[in-house]
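Hey all, quick one. A colleague (J.T.) asked me to put the succinic acid job into the tracker so the inputs and the structure tokens live in one place instead of scattered across chat threads. No bug as far as I know, just bookkeeping. Sequence used:
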Amino acid sequence: MHLGRLKEGYVLKVNRYLVDFDSEKMEAEFHDVLIIGSGIAGVYTALEIDDKHDIAILTKESINMSNSVLAQGGIAVSLDKGDSPEYHFKDTIYAGAGLCDEDTVWVLVNEAASNIECLCTYGVNFDKSGEGELALTREGAHSKNRIIHAGDTTGKEVCDKLISEVKNRSNVTIKERTFALDLLKEGNTCKGVLAYDEDTSKFKLYLSNLVVCATGGYGQIYENTTNPEVATGDGVCLAYRAGAELMDLEFIQFHPTVLCHPENRSFLISEAVRGEGAQLKNIHGERFMSQYHELGELAPRDVVSRAIFAEMKKTSSDHVFLDITFKGREYLENRFPNIFKTCLGYGIDISKDYIPIAPTEHYCMGGIKTDVYGRTNIEGLFACGEAACNGIHGANRLASNSLLEGLVFGNKIATEINTYLSYKGGKQQEFSFNYNSERTLREMDSTEAINSVKRIMTHDVGIIRNREGLSQAAGKIAVISKEINDMKNDSIKDFELQNVVLLSGLIIDSAIKREESRGAHYRSDYPNTEESWKRHIVKKVESF
Ligand code: SIN
């Protein structure tokens, strides 16, 4: 058992594996490559690996359930005549508040266009302008129009086409309802994963020297989030327990404009709506963004979210409004069909009514630390997409850089894997290990514990933080971590609880350590950005 000591002296209990197992008594399957997760990063990586290699995609729900599918706005790529990768680079760096890794950002912006071309060859149908070119819109902190889109359901269009392509690949096996619990290793070399098959309720080994972790983020640690229920940070935790380094966990992005309706507090109102001119107004109908930033409604996301939060406090309200009523109904129905229809379902006609919105958890900048090729500090383990942290987002992600990240670095990982397999060959043949934690296990209700974690994180680890709140949160999470340490984990909900508690503890600890305000991490007790803090906080399990 590892006792992670949180900064405040509290202890986070972590076991190397979530369950005891004996490999000799278990069924095993062998593949050249395992990809965990079926969002854009996982599926695109699978498509970019040579089709002579045998790949398994493990996904804990059905293949089309991911955060990528919900992405509305689009994908950033500098295609306009007046635009260039240099401008895209500058905007990404500016939004990232001094913490982006510049070399990696250059790769992102320089390789954006070739990967978008590749998406188009898979049949992805982006909106076109009158001249038949890809239509470009703007989002927050972009100095040019460079967001390509498919209506307001860009993620769905991209994922549908990629999934349909991957289903036709005979070298790819898709394992749905298969939860990857833990990484198997020999020394520091990856050997595969221990997984749970929900249909048979059995544990199974998937063996491979190459594992790509593309499991997405961990938005489900907050009460309100735009993320689907599957976003519980399982891949990040699996990597951490196996000894992978995690980075930048304290930076959690709150999207400024999420519907705030008694029946729905998670539906995103895309930043592209502000890109098309929508204005933010407080409950008295007054515009306010010019008091907070020269870019007004199109300031970086962290700035807009804090400004809205401040207006909500000033006016003692749980929301402000987004006003796009000056655009005609026909235009809005065509440009934002999903937003139009969904809001109408709640009695809000966006061509006539202001939309009540509030900032809500949306994206995790931190994750498994990787280099520009998606490699982690564990040999054979790669990470991609929101699960990864390669430094492109810094302290605050620029809008519409996330789907792009999955493509560009999915392609980079595939190239690495193709090279590896051409030299070293595929399937390894054996793995033998018996793990017995010698704990006396007891039944526990995971739902109540998960809800407690969400309450703690929302209350004390949200948009505005301070030492007192973070310290209290650390203490409460340490208590839960102790309670669940000897819990009998025998369902996906139980595994998720373990991961949610572990991640929350690590996020809080990073947030306590960073004694400054930068990007999405705002400390009311340290409101300034400090040059001495222009560095990353990296977390690694000490020992087992
Ligand atoms: C949005 O459409 O506002 C979300 C896009 C993103 O998160 O980059």
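Adding what we noticed when we looked at it: DSSP finds 15 helices and 25 strands in the chain. The pocket of succinic acid is lined by residues 71-73, 268, 270-272, 363, 399-400, 402 (CB under 6 Å).
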